[in-house]
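hiii so um. not sure if this is the right channel but i have a protein structure encoded as tokens and i wanna go backwards to a sequence. like what aa goes where. can anyone help
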């Protein structure tokens, strides 16, 4: 009778293999995470530009003005100023946009789930006069600068990634909170001329510097009294957040 010798890993060999796999995984994971984040940022920028183009089309049809009123049946009627960006973006539906999906951003506390794409439609022949289905709370990630026109300074910011809930113009490093989608390092900004870019955030202040090189006043500083930059008329409107957003 022949004796059959069975080969097998020893415990030491098995532990070595497991250790090597763990080391390789620890090296690969940050790289994978970085690639995914850059992909999400590219999509975020593309979506923001689509919204900006819709805003420009709206302005063409409304004497050059970007949306600056709360939802109503007719934009030409007198209306109060919006208090959040959802109300302003509401005017883009359904004539300029048909899907809410471009208003969401992966990992944003403002949009913890995908929008349901339910849009306020004419009921009984009458246009909707309030925000009910379109861009409900938790369905929009983007902040908005109000009271601008298509002839405003083309370097003025028009929309951007949503800021900290209690501090418009400021981002946080905490990804779990509003304004923290890119960990306070980057932010997508689109300007009045519909151009856009991924900009650096100052790590100390959480703000985007207006001047190149990372110093100077904030890009979203609206305290100018001499017309040189944004003024108090240009309110920085954050998105309407989900109920439990921080």
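sure thing!! here u go:
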């Amino acid at each position: 009778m022949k004796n059959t010798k069975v080969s097998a890993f020893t415990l030491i060999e098995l532990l070595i293999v497991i250790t090597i796999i763990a080391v390789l995984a620890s090296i690969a994971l940050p790289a994978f995470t970085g690639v995914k984040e850059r992909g999400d940022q590219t999509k975020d920028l593309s979506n923001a530009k689509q919204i900006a183009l819709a805003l420009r089309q709206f302005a063409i049809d409304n004497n050059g003005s970007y949306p600056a009123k709360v939802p109503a049946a007719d934009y030409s009627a007198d209306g109060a100023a919006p208090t959040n960006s959802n109300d302003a973006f509401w005017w883009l539906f359904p004539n300029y946009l048909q899907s809410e999906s471009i208003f969401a951003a992966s990992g944003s506390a403002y949009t913890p789930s995908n929008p349901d794409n339910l849009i306020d439609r004419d009921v009984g022949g009458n246009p909707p006069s309030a925000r009910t289905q379109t861009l409900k709370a938790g369905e929009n990630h983007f902040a908005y600068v109000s009271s601008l026109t298509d002839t405003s300074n083309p370097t003025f910011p028009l929309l951007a990634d949503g800021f900290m809930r209690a501090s418009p113009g400021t981002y946080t490093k905490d990804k779990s909170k509003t304004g923290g989608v890119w960990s306070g390092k980057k932010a997508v900004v689109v300007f009045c001329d519909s151009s856009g870019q991924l900009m650096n955030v100052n790590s100390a202040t959480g703000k985007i510097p207006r001047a190149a090189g990372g110093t100077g006043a904030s890009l979203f500083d609206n305290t100018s009294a001499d017309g040189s930059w944004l003024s108090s008329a240009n309110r920085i409107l954050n998105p309407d957040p989900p109920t439990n957003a921080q």
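oh and Residues 12-237 form one domain.
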